[in-house]
Amino acid sequence: MNNQRSLFFNVDWFIILTYLTLCIIGWFNIHAAVYDPMNPSIIDLDTNYGKQLIFIISAFIIGFAILLFDNKFFNTFSPVFYGITILLLILVLIIGRNVGGNQAWIPIGSFRLQPSEFAKFATCLLLARYLSSGTIKVQEFRTQITAAFIILLPTALILLQPDAGSALTFSSLILVLYREGLSGYFLVIEGLSIVLFVLTVLYNKYVVLVGVIALTGTLIYFYRKSRKSLTIIGSGFLFSVLFIFSVDFAYNKILKPHQKNRIDVILGKVNDPRGIGYNLNQSKIAIGSGGLWGKGYLQGTQTKYDFVPEQSTDFIFCTVGEEWGFAGCFLVISLYLFLLIRIVNIAERQRSSFARIYGYGVASILFFHVFINIGMTIGLIPVIGIPLPFLSYGGSSLWSFTILLFILLKFDSNRMGII
Amino acid sequence: MNSFFARKFVVQGIFIAITIILLMRLFYIQVISDEYILSAENNVIRRLPIYPARGVILDRNENILVQNEPVYDLMVIPREVKPFDTIEFCNLIGIDKKGFDRRFKKARSYSPYKASIFEKQLSVQIYASFQEKLSNFPGFFVQNRTVRRYPDSIAAHFLGYIGEVNQRVIENSKGFYSQGDYHGITGVEKSYEELLRGQRGVQNLMVDALNRPKGSYADGKYDTVAVAGEHMISSLDKDLQKLGEQLMKNKIGSIVAIEPSTGEILSFVSSPGYDPNLMVGRQRGNNYMALLNDTYKPMFVRPIQAEYPPGSIFKVVNALVAQQFGLINENTYFFCPGGYRYGRQGFMGCTHVHGSIGLKGSITESCNTYYGYTYARMIDQAGMRPVNAYKKWRTAVSAFGIGTALGIDLPGERNGLLPTSDFYTKRFKNDRWGSAFTISLSIGQGELGITPLQMANVMAIVANRGFFYKPHLIKAIGDENVIKEEFLKKNSAGIDPAYFDVIIDGMSAVVNQPSGTAWYSRIPEIEMCGKTGTVQNPHGKDHSVFVAFAPRENPKIAIAVVVENAGFGATWSAPIASLMVEKYINKKISRPKAYMDRLIDANLLPGSGKVIRK
Lengths: 419, 614
Fold this sequence. Notes:
The structure holds two protein chains of two kinds. By secondary structure, chain A is mainly alpha-helical. Chain A has helices at 2-5, 7-10, 13-34, 48-68, 71-95, 115-132, 141-159, 164-169, 174-179, 184-202, 205-222, 227-254, 257-266, 276-288, 316-348, 353-377, 395-413, and strands at residues 97-99, 102-108, 111-113. Chain A is 69% helix and 3% strand. In chain A, β1 (97-99) and β2 (102-108) form a beta hairpin. Chain B has three domains: 7-33; 69-149, Alpha-Beta Complex (Penicillin-binding protein 2a (Domain 2)); 238-601, DD-peptidase/beta-lactamase superfamily (Beta-lactamase, 3-Layer(aba) Sandwich). Helices cover 34% and strands 19% of the residues of chain B. In chain B, the strands form seven sheets. In chain B, strands 2, 3, 4, 5, 10 and 18 form a six-stranded mixed β-sheet that branches. Classes of the chains: A mainly alpha, B alpha+beta. Chains A and B meet through α9, α14, α15 and α16 of A and α1 and α2 of B.
């Protein structure tokens, strides 16, 4: 076909432009975050922003190379990618470098490889391949179990590092299953479980119980006419109560103190002023002080003078918030929303269900990162250390998000060629 | 397309919903709430005070009494220290390796990032040689600040001292002072604190999370410069003060000298005193405790805080008041048989049998009998009930500045004591008392308390023939030589000038007639008018008092000298006063050295055993 030859006419340029815009915004903000007014220099390959420039260029080369691969390559080799990733995840537990309490990196020369980043697209690919094969129906229990296994195997290995943030990312893949026919109740139950878990750990279980009872009562009042709704509400109530008590029991009786402490820290329950609580507070101050239009490029004081920790990686959004204000945040978040909506639309226009399912995987994972990361910096949710796609400093994460995205672009550019 | 296509909208709906939540939250913390803007400023801005130079205090001839002297503190920021030649460093500032390690450890435990004092107050020589080699020692720098320095070591009570502010002062200052600031605690330093301290400037510095300075905030737009404190010209005469302090060595007491035409205090000696330089520098705390525990109480400001019954010098006041009341005049004579009988069997002895004695003679020879009669006239024969006559007398006496603080520009001035009629009514349990009950007041004994300042002020009134200016220490403030309005106001003592002649005649004779009590203290070529007093002291030897002014015409100086436990006024206080007067008026002393040495060498401290130490 004519289309297959002119590859670049079929690539979705909206996505590529958005992608590039986000990368460049990221680079400028990393520069601002590490900018030292006493030593201003724009290009220095020893600094984070210098390295990030290399990461961006190499990521773009990787993305371009992906577009040159054969279309069937990814489908065919998805079990191989998955297998390699799992091996790497096991390997990292044995020979990995421990940085900041997480054994997540394999050192290769001067760079460090983070297998958990690559587990994301490998898992998406395998999940897409499994769900798109033949007569599989997501509504069937067998399918659900297999899909859950594909998702939970890397999740469990990442949890062992232990990197709770990255592990949680995989929970977003439930959106993929939902799109493929999983009952909507699973979404509700997953959401409910997360909320109840956090609340039970943070507050007294009886307080949470009272809340659940009040909510149930309200729901019963509104749906008192419908028997079916009442049954659902009743079972939801029963689930909630059982869940609260089991979480409470597990948390207080089964977990060891250091494990409990880790959960407490993740949820911000332990308010160590120089620890997690400090980060969150400083991050809110940095973003909040930006105002409507921000302080201007390189004018941020909070990020520049190290009040915000991890300012070029997980907390890069603070620099955006401080120097570009609400306007800048609005722009960045809008770009993400555009990207996500566009990815879903692209997924839906694929003829092969493999490509479509993969597309939903990409959207879910990006969405989860964006929501959790920004939500964390503005104090909406507890501090969970995951990067902001395309903006955060770091080669592994930029490459993995690029690979994730460009595989979808590759599928999309070939969508006409697949029957 | 498959059967679950519609779920695309659910998924996209979730994306949009979450986006809206994020944006709403961002809008709240960035645009609506300003809490975070304030927190951000607190994080990053450090307001560094810039200390102004404290005002200098000069004497009336513009000699420096207290000035600021730069001291050089060697500072260190431990984190910025890089390896250097420790031996050279130690040799330069004169410490050993052990001392170096100890100081460095202390600085590091205070803060690795913040500057702390490594060695206080380097000498100028060390500072100079160190400054040259400063670049060899990264992390070290020299900070200069100023301390008070008193070149002549005089007038400690007058000037007062400064010290670090305490928590209470910080709270009451409405944000003016902060920890580590200095303020005046006593003396002029305290009473003129607001003018002397100047205005502090502020430099807004930006710091990073580790408190390291990162340059000025907003290019110094919000910085303010420090305004130096006002300099003060005091009324004190440096040379006179020096002489006074010398003469009062090893004695307890005061000298207050006032310029009658202005109320300016020329000399303000409180003895025993102390070197004001003791209250500065590293040994300050120890010195302070030693002074506080001294049995002779050198911190006590005797000229305004010690109250004495004035003794015979009070006869001057009674003589003037009685004349003003029209009860005696220069031709009034009483018979002195060696004492005054009052009541049924009361007897107030006199120094001599004076026989028939007039007003002038009563001053010159200090006749108690004369004042017994005079007082009786004022109280018992005033044509009213004695209680009311007493009230009238009291009002007249208080017009001399007795019984209430004069309002000198120093903290801690006492009122003294001039009892009200109610006081006696209460004491005698009825109001039918008369002169016989309070006869001691006629000769300045009994329930009277007068500070040396008040005594000198009475002399100023006599010198001026009936008025005085509020005694004060600061005659001009700042470049424009401002003087406080209250010091320009003439206060009347309520006595007609005509009544002073005979008193002044009598006082002149005290000094300048061989029969006068202070003949020994006469000054060649200067007609000094004075009055001796001996204050009965129930605790030991009597206090010696002498008040005077000179010269008789156009008086330049009024003076009061009190020497505790020294006996007769004529023995110690009068010669001291005469030297002060001569020194001030003639700028030199004509009398033989031995005359002065006797006074300077005398040790009259109680318990010292001998009166004259040679």
